[in-house]
Amino acid sequence: MSVAEPIVANDQDTGQSDLAHRLARTWSQPGGFWGWFCNTHHTNIGIRFMVTAFIFFLLGGVLAAMIRLQLIRPENSRMGPDLYNQVFTMHGSTMIFLFAVPMMFQGFGVYVVPLMCGARNIAFPRLNAFSYYLYVGGALVLWGGLLTNTGPDVGWFAYVPLSGPQYSPGHRADIWSQMITFTEVSALGVAICLATTILRHRAPGMTLNRMPILLWEKLVISLAVIFAMPAVMVASGLLLLDRLVGTHFFNPAEGGDVLLYQHLFWFFGHPEVYIIFLPGASIISTLVECFSRRRIFGYTPIVVSVVATGFIGFTAASLMIVIPTGTQFFCWVVTLWTGRLQLRLPMLWSFGFFFVFLIGGLSGVMLASVPVDLQVHDTYFVVAHFHYVLIGGALFPMFAGIYFWFPKMAGRMLSARLGVWHFWLFFLGFNLTFFTMHFLGLRGMPRRVYTYSPDMHWQWLNVLASLGVVFMTAGLLVFLANVFRSLRNGEIAGNNPWADAGLEWSVSSPPPAYNFLHVPTVSGRDPLWEDPPDQPIVVGLRDDIRETLVTHSLDAEPQHKDEDPGPSLWPFLTALMVSATFVGSIFTPWAVPIGAVPVTVTLIGWLWPRGPSPAPRPSGESWAQ
User: Fold this and answer.
1) CATH 3.40.50.1820 fits domain 10-267+498-607
2) How large is the average pLDDT for residues 550-563?
3) How far, in Å, are 21, 145, 533 from residue 583 at the CA level?
4) What are phi and psi of 216, to 5 degrees?
């Protein structure tokens, strides 16, 4: 029996069914058109993050295909330098800011973390919903610029003075700058929600040394986001002030400093790599334990490695960071070696991750060596390394996680046969594209060029790299066909098709609106494998209001009860007003004081005190365990 099921005698089944109906009514989300904008439950918002981020991944892939088509032969005139710069900038910005972090950190985190904690909803659900709408607003602003020929053209990093007012007139760099503000405020909001959920809404008994590794990694990433994201927001904000107001933060002629921008940007940029990698690593740790059928080897070393990665990611210690990363790899290998491996589809993607990320890590160590870096700096060798790390650290775990948690989200299994076709097409295409780029870099092809001379003899390598995109596209088409087919006709999944140990598998698939009939308690690190059948459950939470349990940060002892604010339209309206203010500030600084008025009004509506909760019905449960 799962820990979330009520421990009752058979003659009490009717009472438990009535409790489920009352909870479903209390925790239900509004329907209809406006109800979609009022929804604040973490499962719905998490799926929205993932679907939206995947759409922008596909759009970023279209831009990548345009780049490869341009470079497939020398002196190609399909795109001029201006359009190519827009496409190049949009590809990088989309993949980094609109796909990688929103998918790996926000999407998976928002959906899975409350379920793994044994909570009925995420902490600060309205802030979580606001973060999603703000993310969508930033994405629409960025892509609206491209569609109106005002797309950013200064690279996804927007270095000054190239992005400054002297060399980039118009509003292209302004659009990029404000997109950063949109997406980073969104990431900060989700980081606060996830960190609070992990620290204060864990099931009783889930002490820090019993937390799943995925929760440890989400906590470390949340703290990294809270420290790293403000730096790039300051950089983009100062850039916008230089361009719009006439300040001179980055103008050396007036006492500014060009390197200040790079220091601020890379205080964010280097941790960003691990903000993308650690969510993938957390998925791999979860899958390795599940499909090895044993507790993960080296739980404590992995946790220490995760924390160390969060700290080292803020430094220039590129060589040193291989130690905690290598520690996780060795623990995964030992777990697989000493367990009873079940080679299911999610594990196939995990092995693909091992292969490509290992190559990316080794090339990263090479680039950290000064003599090598002097030779291959700003060549396609760096492009190859960058994509091996980010694709290996994000895309392969992403697909592994989708195949693993899709049954929980949709209640149906994805086709294993189509999944195998998807894997091999994508795996072969990826390596054909990006491994080839190592040789292009060693042959001296510089990055960020829109064409090249025929006498450089780079064409046949570019043809191979472009051919790999065809294989990856075919794999993605197979995946999309698999998803749409399985949503309607896939095999019914059941509660726990993988026989995993996490609390998220103790509830129905998809989860009910209230997640858990009773808040569970745990007595081990792997609840569904270790907890006894008579494991206690938490009762006493009211069923007529959205009441949640708050526990101690360290030992997860119950402290008090809190009330979930429930669905609301105000987060959407606030995000709309904030978005209008951000967009207006691209054109005039007066948009900020003017926009502050409607933003304040919507915030007042959002935070307006509610009336007292109704008195509990006589049928309500008493507080006990």
Assistant:
1) no
2) 93
3) 45, 11, 56
4) -60, -45
